[in-house]
Amino acid sequence: MRKPSLLSIVEIGGYPNFRPLYEKAGFEVLVETRMRKAMATIKRQRPRVIVAEFNFQSDFRDRTSSLESMMSVVERLADTQVVVFYEKEYQHQLQRLLATRSFYRTFAFPIPEEELFAAVSALNRG
């Protein structure tokens, strides 16, 4: 039986490589470093879980980040859940996004590995 897929979108990084954690939770892990490629992967692979960073971009006029663009694609996929990492200093900007979008979980840096493992493991159980 094929493992469900988890797409990890690491645009900026600077935190541990969670691939082993995702694999331990039972996922086939896909990694993208650019949102444009990630959106193509989402359409093609339809991952069960997406883990992405909220990178606030003040130069966007109509959005807070490229995460909003990704969510417009994800919202059409009923079985896909999204986990978001964010910097505490941008929590107020993330709150603006949460007013119109929903995520399975959000985690502020530094990411609590045990909680992340529990969250993605629960998503593999369906």
Q: Could you describe the 3D structure shown?
A:
By secondary structure, the chain is an alpha/beta fold. The chain contains five helices and five strands. Strands 2-1-3-4-5 form a five-stranded parallel beta sheet, with helices on both faces. The longest helix has 12 residues, at 113-124.
Low-confidence spans: none
Order of helices and strands: EHEHEHEHEH
CATH architecture: 3-Layer(aba) Sandwich
Largest sheet: 5 strands, parallel
Question: What topology emerges from the helices and strands here?
Answer:
Layout (H helix, E strand, L loop, with lengths): L4 E5 L9 H6 L3 E5 L2 H11 L3 E6 L11 H9 L6 E6 L4 H8 L6 E4 L4 H12 L2
Parallel strand pairs: 1-2, 1-3, 3-4, 4-5
Helix pairs in contact: 2-3
Describe this protein with a few key phrases.
alpha/beta, five-stranded parallel sheet, 5 strands, 37% helix, 21% strand
Summarize the structure.
The chain has helices at 19-24, 35-45, 66-74, 91-98, 113-124, and strands at residues 5-9, 28-32, 49-54, 81-86, 105-108. The protein is α/β, with parallel strands linked by helices.
